[in-house]
Amino acid sequence: MLTMFNRTGGAGSRPWRGAIATATLVALSLGAAGCSGNSKSNAASTSSSSSSSKSSNASSNSSKSSGSGLSPVTAHNVSLPNGTPGQGKPSVTIGDKNFPEEFLLGDLYQIALKAKGYTVTVKPNIGGSEIIDTSFKSGQIDLYPEYLGEIVSSVAKKSPQKSDVATYNAAKKFEQSHRNATLLKQTPFQDVDVLFVKTAFAKANNLKSVGDLTNVGAKGQGVTYVAQPPSRTRFAGLKGLQKAYGLTKVNFVGAPPGQQYKAINKGQGNVGDAFSTDPAFASGVNAGKYLALNDTKHIMGFQHVAPVVKQSVVKAEGPQFTKTLNWVSSLLTLKAVQTMDIAVQTHHKDASTVAQKFLEANGLNS
User: Fold this and answer.
1) CATH hierarchy code of domain 193-292
2) What's the rounded Cα separation, in Å, for the pair 15 and 129?
3) Is the predicted pLDDT of residue 1 greater than 70, yes or no?
4) Low complexity compositional bias: what residue ranges (predicted)?
Protein backbone atom coordinates (compact mmCIF):
# COMPACT_ATOMS: atom_id res chain seq x y z
CA MET A 1 0.00 0.00 0.00
CA LEU A 2 1.24 3.46 -0.81
CA THR A 3 2.47 5.63 2.04
CA MET A 4 0.89 9.05 1.72
CA PHE A 5 0.66 12.01 4.05
CA ASN A 6 -2.59 13.55 5.13
CA ARG A 7 -4.31 15.81 7.58
CA THR A 8 -4.37 14.04 10.84
CA GLY A 9 -1.00 12.71 11.49
CA GLY A 10 1.82 10.89 9.84
CA ALA A 11 1.18 8.60 6.94
CA GLY A 12 -2.20 7.28 6.07
CA SER A 13 -4.38 8.72 8.83
CA ARG A 14 -6.98 11.45 8.83
CA PRO A 15 -10.46 12.08 10.16
CA TRP A 16 -13.30 12.71 7.81
CA ARG A 17 -15.03 15.97 6.88
CA GLY A 18 -18.28 16.74 4.93
CA ALA A 19 -19.71 20.04 3.78
CA ILE A 20 -20.98 21.85 0.73
CA ALA A 21 -20.49 21.69 -2.98
CA THR A 22 -21.53 24.63 -5.03
CA ALA A 23 -23.20 23.57 -8.25
CA THR A 24 -20.94 25.80 -10.25
CA LEU A 25 -17.65 24.98 -8.54
CA VAL A 26 -15.77 23.77 -11.57
CA ALA A 27 -16.83 26.85 -13.50
CA LEU A 28 -15.64 29.26 -10.80
CA SER A 29 -13.27 31.88 -12.12
CA LEU A 30 -9.88 31.72 -10.46
CA GLY A 31 -10.09 35.50 -10.22
CA ALA A 32 -7.73 36.86 -7.65
CA ALA A 33 -6.49 33.39 -6.84
CA GLY A 34 -5.29 32.70 -10.36
CA CYS A 35 -1.56 32.87 -10.96
CA SER A 36 1.36 30.99 -12.41
CA GLY A 37 3.82 28.62 -10.79
CA ASN A 38 4.06 25.13 -9.30
CA SER A 39 2.44 23.76 -6.18
CA LYS A 40 4.69 23.31 -3.16
CA SER A 41 4.52 19.57 -3.44
CA ASN A 42 3.09 17.58 -6.31
CA ALA A 43 3.22 14.46 -4.15
CA ALA A 44 1.42 16.19 -1.34
CA SER A 45 -1.29 17.40 -3.68
CA THR A 46 -2.58 13.83 -3.93
CA SER A 47 -3.16 13.74 -0.20
CA SER A 48 -6.02 16.19 -0.08
CA SER A 49 -8.87 13.97 -1.23
CA SER A 50 -11.98 15.82 -0.16
CA SER A 51 -15.66 16.02 -0.72
CA SER A 52 -18.44 18.46 -1.36
CA SER A 53 -22.14 18.01 -1.06
CA LYS A 54 -24.89 19.69 -3.08
CA SER A 55 -26.80 20.23 0.13
CA SER A 56 -25.38 22.76 2.56
CA ASN A 57 -25.71 20.38 5.48
CA ALA A 58 -22.42 21.20 7.18
CA SER A 59 -22.93 24.93 7.02
CA SER A 60 -26.54 24.78 8.08
CA ASN A 61 -25.54 22.68 11.07
CA SER A 62 -23.35 25.47 12.43
CA SER A 63 -24.72 27.51 15.32
CA LYS A 64 -25.92 30.79 13.89
CA SER A 65 -25.81 34.29 15.31
CA SER A 66 -28.79 36.55 14.84
CA GLY A 67 -27.06 39.19 12.75
CA SER A 68 -24.52 37.90 10.24
CA GLY A 69 -25.78 34.35 9.83
CA LEU A 70 -22.40 33.21 11.16
CA SER A 71 -21.74 31.73 14.59
CA PRO A 72 -20.36 34.08 17.26
CA VAL A 73 -16.95 32.39 17.17
CA THR A 74 -16.54 33.06 13.44
CA ALA A 75 -14.46 35.94 12.09
CA HIS A 76 -16.49 38.45 10.08
CA ASN A 77 -16.48 42.19 9.38
CA VAL A 78 -12.85 42.48 10.48
CA SER A 79 -10.89 45.45 9.19
CA LEU A 80 -7.21 45.16 8.32
CA PRO A 81 -4.97 47.23 10.63
CA ASN A 82 -3.36 50.30 9.12
CA GLY A 83 0.37 50.72 8.72
CA THR A 84 2.95 48.24 9.97
CA PRO A 85 2.14 47.60 13.64
CA GLY A 86 4.47 44.60 13.70
CA GLN A 87 7.64 46.65 13.46
CA GLY A 88 9.73 46.18 16.57
CA LYS A 89 7.71 43.20 17.79
CA PRO A 90 9.35 39.84 18.59
CA SER A 91 9.68 37.40 15.72
CA VAL A 92 7.17 34.56 15.43
CA THR A 93 7.37 31.12 13.86
CA ILE A 94 4.35 29.81 11.98
CA GLY A 95 3.99 26.20 10.90
CA ASP A 96 1.65 24.40 8.56
CA LYS A 97 0.68 20.78 8.01
CA ASN A 98 1.45 18.47 5.13
CA PHE A 99 -1.09 18.90 2.34
CA PRO A 100 -1.94 21.58 -0.22
CA GLU A 101 -4.81 23.34 1.54
CA GLU A 102 -2.64 23.72 4.66
CA PHE A 103 0.22 25.13 2.60
CA LEU A 104 -2.24 27.68 1.29
CA LEU A 105 -3.55 28.53 4.75
CA GLY A 106 -0.06 28.91 6.16
CA ASP A 107 0.87 31.25 3.31
CA LEU A 108 -2.26 33.36 3.73
CA TYR A 109 -1.53 34.03 7.40
CA GLN A 110 2.22 34.56 7.10
CA ILE A 111 1.96 36.87 4.07
CA ALA A 112 -0.55 39.09 5.86
CA LEU A 113 1.63 39.26 8.99
CA LYS A 114 4.74 40.14 7.01
CA ALA A 115 2.85 42.86 5.13
CA LYS A 116 1.94 44.38 8.47
CA GLY A 117 5.58 44.50 9.57
CA TYR A 118 5.78 41.37 11.70
CA THR A 119 8.92 39.27 11.52
CA VAL A 120 7.83 35.77 10.56
CA THR A 121 9.73 32.52 10.17
CA VAL A 122 7.87 29.74 8.37
CA LYS A 123 8.25 26.01 9.03
CA PRO A 124 6.15 24.37 6.30
CA ASN A 125 5.02 20.80 5.73
CA ILE A 126 5.53 19.69 9.34
CA GLY A 127 3.07 16.82 9.37
CA GLY A 128 -0.44 15.89 10.42
CA SER A 129 -2.38 17.03 13.46
CA GLU A 130 -0.63 14.94 16.09
CA ILE A 131 2.80 15.77 14.66
CA ILE A 132 2.32 19.53 14.38
CA ASP A 133 0.76 19.58 17.85
CA THR A 134 3.97 18.01 19.17
CA SER A 135 6.01 20.73 17.45
CA PHE A 136 3.71 23.37 18.91
CA LYS A 137 3.84 21.88 22.40
CA SER A 138 7.64 21.74 22.34
CA GLY A 139 7.93 25.38 21.28
CA GLN A 140 9.30 24.76 17.79
CA ILE A 141 6.46 26.89 16.36
CA ASP A 142 4.36 29.68 17.86
CA LEU A 143 1.20 29.30 15.80
CA TYR A 144 -0.40 27.22 13.08
CA PRO A 145 -3.77 26.95 11.31
CA GLU A 146 -5.79 23.93 12.39
CA TYR A 147 -9.14 22.31 11.69
CA LEU A 148 -10.90 22.54 15.01
CA GLY A 149 -12.52 19.14 14.91
CA GLU A 150 -9.00 17.75 14.58
CA ILE A 151 -8.01 19.27 17.90
CA VAL A 152 -11.05 17.72 19.55
CA SER A 153 -10.81 14.24 18.04
CA SER A 154 -7.18 13.66 17.01
CA VAL A 155 -5.32 15.65 19.66
CA ALA A 156 -7.63 15.89 22.68
CA LYS A 157 -9.15 12.46 21.89
CA LYS A 158 -12.69 13.63 22.58
CA SER A 159 -15.92 12.68 20.82
CA PRO A 160 -17.20 15.01 18.07
CA GLN A 161 -19.27 17.94 19.31
CA LYS A 162 -22.80 18.76 18.15
CA SER A 163 -22.20 22.27 16.80
CA ASP A 164 -19.41 24.44 15.49
CA VAL A 165 -19.54 26.61 18.62
CA ALA A 166 -19.26 23.56 20.90
CA THR A 167 -16.34 22.31 18.78
CA TYR A 168 -14.62 25.70 18.97
CA ASN A 169 -15.10 25.93 22.72
CA ALA A 170 -13.88 22.37 23.34
CA ALA A 171 -10.80 22.95 21.19
CA LYS A 172 -10.07 26.28 22.86
CA LYS A 173 -10.44 24.80 26.33
CA PHE A 174 -7.98 22.05 25.46
CA GLU A 175 -5.43 24.49 24.05
CA GLN A 176 -5.73 26.77 27.08
CA SER A 177 -5.48 23.92 29.60
CA HIS A 178 -2.86 21.73 27.94
CA ARG A 179 -0.84 23.94 25.58
CA ASN A 180 -0.81 27.41 27.20
CA ALA A 181 -2.38 28.54 23.96
CA THR A 182 -5.60 29.96 22.60
CA LEU A 183 -7.66 30.05 19.43
CA LEU A 184 -8.36 33.14 17.40
CA LYS A 185 -11.63 33.46 15.48
CA GLN A 186 -12.54 30.62 13.14
CA THR A 187 -13.04 30.83 9.38
CA PRO A 188 -16.49 30.94 7.76
CA PHE A 189 -15.55 27.89 5.66
CA GLN A 190 -15.03 24.40 6.94
CA ASP A 191 -13.51 21.36 5.26
CA VAL A 192 -15.42 18.37 6.58
CA ASP A 193 -15.39 14.73 5.55
CA VAL A 194 -18.44 13.39 3.79
CA LEU A 195 -19.59 9.96 2.73
CA PHE A 196 -20.44 9.74 -0.95
CA VAL A 197 -21.97 7.24 -3.34
CA LYS A 198 -22.43 7.00 -7.08
CA THR A 199 -25.62 8.74 -8.15
CA ALA A 200 -27.01 5.57 -9.72
CA PHE A 201 -26.46 3.67 -6.47
CA ALA A 202 -28.23 6.44 -4.53
CA LYS A 203 -31.23 6.33 -6.84
CA ALA A 204 -31.45 2.54 -6.73
CA ASN A 205 -31.48 2.54 -2.92
CA ASN A 206 -33.24 5.85 -2.24
CA LEU A 207 -30.21 7.31 -0.43
CA LYS A 208 -30.09 10.88 0.82
CA SER A 209 -28.49 10.59 4.25
CA VAL A 210 -26.04 8.23 5.94
CA GLY A 211 -28.86 6.62 7.89
CA ASP A 212 -30.52 5.64 4.61
CA LEU A 213 -27.78 3.04 4.07
CA THR A 214 -30.11 0.65 5.89
CA ASN A 215 -32.04 0.67 2.60
CA VAL A 216 -29.16 -1.31 1.07
CA GLY A 217 -29.49 -3.99 3.72
CA ALA A 218 -30.40 -4.40 7.38
CA LYS A 219 -27.78 -2.73 9.59
CA GLY A 220 -25.80 -1.85 6.48
CA GLN A 221 -25.51 -5.35 5.10
CA GLY A 222 -24.16 -5.06 1.56
CA VAL A 223 -22.47 -1.70 2.17
CA THR A 224 -18.72 -1.55 1.54
CA TYR A 225 -17.13 1.59 2.96
CA VAL A 226 -13.87 2.71 1.34
CA ALA A 227 -11.67 5.04 3.37
CA GLN A 228 -8.13 5.45 4.62
CA PRO A 229 -7.11 2.55 6.91
CA PRO A 230 -7.20 4.42 10.26
CA SER A 231 -10.88 5.16 9.69
CA ARG A 232 -11.57 1.54 10.62
CA THR A 233 -11.07 2.43 14.31
CA ARG A 234 -12.15 6.10 14.36
CA PHE A 235 -15.50 7.42 15.50
CA ALA A 236 -15.28 9.78 12.52
CA GLY A 237 -15.41 6.69 10.35
CA LEU A 238 -16.48 3.08 10.79
CA LYS A 239 -16.97 3.29 14.57
CA GLY A 240 -19.33 6.23 14.13
CA LEU A 241 -21.29 4.38 11.49
CA GLN A 242 -21.66 1.47 13.89
CA LYS A 243 -22.36 3.35 17.12
CA ALA A 244 -24.29 6.42 15.92
CA TYR A 245 -26.13 4.92 12.96
CA GLY A 246 -26.37 1.27 13.95
CA LEU A 247 -24.69 0.19 10.72
CA THR A 248 -22.93 -2.77 12.30
CA LYS A 249 -22.85 -4.91 9.16
CA VAL A 250 -20.87 -2.48 7.01
CA ASN A 251 -17.76 -3.92 5.38
CA PHE A 252 -14.61 -1.78 5.48
CA VAL A 253 -11.94 -1.49 2.78
CA GLY A 254 -8.82 0.58 3.42
CA ALA A 255 -7.43 2.71 0.60
CA PRO A 256 -4.71 5.39 0.31
CA PRO A 257 -5.81 9.03 -0.10
CA GLY A 258 -7.34 9.65 -3.51
CA GLN A 259 -7.79 5.98 -4.28
CA GLN A 260 -11.33 5.84 -2.91
CA TYR A 261 -12.63 7.30 -6.18
CA LYS A 262 -11.05 4.50 -8.20
CA ALA A 263 -12.39 1.89 -5.79
CA ILE A 264 -15.94 3.25 -5.99
CA ASN A 265 -15.76 3.62 -9.78
CA LYS A 266 -14.56 0.03 -10.17
CA GLY A 267 -17.20 -1.40 -7.86
CA GLN A 268 -14.73 -2.37 -5.14
CA GLY A 269 -16.91 -0.44 -2.73
CA ASN A 270 -20.16 1.52 -2.82
CA VAL A 271 -19.59 4.21 -0.18
CA GLY A 272 -16.50 6.41 -0.23
CA ASP A 273 -15.07 9.17 1.93
CA ALA A 274 -13.85 12.57 0.72
CA PHE A 275 -13.04 16.13 1.81
CA SER A 276 -15.53 18.93 1.20
CA THR A 277 -13.16 21.32 -0.58
CA ASP A 278 -11.47 18.75 -2.83
CA PRO A 279 -11.73 19.78 -6.49
CA ALA A 280 -11.73 16.15 -7.64
CA PHE A 281 -14.80 15.30 -5.62
CA ALA A 282 -16.56 18.56 -6.44
CA SER A 283 -16.12 17.92 -10.14
CA GLY A 284 -17.71 14.49 -9.69
CA VAL A 285 -20.66 16.02 -7.87
CA ASN A 286 -21.06 18.74 -10.48
CA ALA A 287 -21.00 16.14 -13.26
CA GLY A 288 -23.76 14.19 -11.52
CA LYS A 289 -21.48 11.24 -10.89
CA TYR A 290 -21.43 11.35 -7.09
CA LEU A 291 -23.88 12.25 -4.35
CA ALA A 292 -22.84 13.23 -0.82
CA LEU A 293 -24.88 11.72 2.01
CA ASN A 294 -26.12 14.00 4.77
CA ASP A 295 -24.41 13.20 8.08
CA THR A 296 -27.38 13.84 10.36
CA LYS A 297 -25.57 12.43 13.43
CA HIS A 298 -22.51 14.65 12.85
CA ILE A 299 -20.02 11.83 13.27
CA MET A 300 -17.61 13.75 11.07
CA GLY A 301 -17.68 16.75 13.38
CA PHE A 302 -17.16 20.40 12.47
CA GLN A 303 -13.96 21.47 10.77
CA HIS A 304 -13.67 25.24 10.62
CA VAL A 305 -10.10 26.53 10.74
CA ALA A 306 -8.59 28.85 13.33
CA PRO A 307 -5.06 29.97 14.15
CA VAL A 308 -3.76 28.18 17.25
CA VAL A 309 -1.44 30.62 19.01
CA LYS A 310 0.63 30.55 22.19
CA GLN A 311 -0.89 32.87 24.79
CA SER A 312 2.52 34.46 25.40
CA VAL A 313 2.76 35.30 21.69
CA VAL A 314 -0.67 36.91 21.61
CA LYS A 315 0.35 39.11 24.55
CA ALA A 316 3.78 40.01 23.18
CA GLU A 317 2.59 40.81 19.66
CA GLY A 318 -0.38 42.95 20.68
CA PRO A 319 -3.99 43.35 19.51
CA GLN A 320 -3.13 44.31 15.91
CA PHE A 321 -1.44 40.93 15.49
CA THR A 322 -4.65 39.19 16.47
CA LYS A 323 -6.68 41.53 14.29
CA THR A 324 -4.50 40.82 11.25
CA LEU A 325 -4.96 37.06 11.62
CA ASN A 326 -8.69 37.45 12.20
CA TRP A 327 -8.90 39.61 9.07
CA VAL A 328 -7.44 36.79 7.01
CA SER A 329 -9.80 34.26 8.59
CA SER A 330 -12.82 36.46 7.85
CA LEU A 331 -12.05 36.31 4.10
CA LEU A 332 -12.00 32.53 3.92
CA THR A 333 -15.46 31.61 2.72
CA LEU A 334 -16.15 28.24 1.14
CA LYS A 335 -16.17 29.73 -2.36
CA ALA A 336 -12.88 31.56 -1.79
CA VAL A 337 -11.09 28.48 -0.51
CA GLN A 338 -12.53 26.20 -3.18
CA THR A 339 -11.37 28.64 -5.86
CA MET A 340 -7.87 28.81 -4.45
CA ASP A 341 -7.76 25.02 -4.01
CA ILE A 342 -8.60 24.63 -7.70
CA ALA A 343 -5.76 27.00 -8.59
CA VAL A 344 -3.24 25.11 -6.46
CA GLN A 345 -4.36 21.50 -6.77
CA THR A 346 -5.90 21.34 -10.24
CA HIS A 347 -3.95 24.00 -12.11
CA HIS A 348 -0.72 23.52 -10.11
CA LYS A 349 -0.28 27.18 -9.25
CA ASP A 350 2.16 28.18 -6.53
CA ALA A 351 0.30 28.37 -3.21
CA SER A 352 2.16 31.44 -1.96
CA THR A 353 1.44 33.33 -5.19
CA VAL A 354 -2.24 32.34 -5.06
CA ALA A 355 -2.39 33.52 -1.45
CA GLN A 356 -0.61 36.80 -2.21
CA LYS A 357 -2.94 37.70 -5.08
CA PHE A 358 -6.03 36.77 -3.08
CA LEU A 359 -5.00 38.97 -0.16
CA GLU A 360 -4.06 41.87 -2.40
CA ALA A 361 -7.43 41.63 -4.15
CA ASN A 362 -9.04 41.94 -0.73
CA GLY A 363 -7.11 45.02 0.36
CA LEU A 364 -3.67 43.93 1.52
CA ASN A 365 -0.94 46.45 0.67
CA SER A 366 2.30 44.54 0.32
Assistant:
1) 3.40.190.120
2) 10
3) no
4) 36-69
